[in-house]
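Work through this protein:
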Amino acid sequence: MQLGAAIGLIIGALVLGLVGGFFGARYYFKRQLQKNPPINEKMIRVMFAQMGRTPSEKQIREIMRNMKQN
């Protein structure tokens, strides 16, 4: 009986660790996305303006497509 209880405790601790790790990682990831949002079209336009260029819509869409692929 003691062996069964020990195995049960080990499995229970493993499950609790996995569930806690999942929610902890999810919270951390959401917090990072709030602090560092992904790049959008407006940011690309600003970067082009800082370089002294005026991008066309085709260039902006191409850059967004390339970023989503990578």
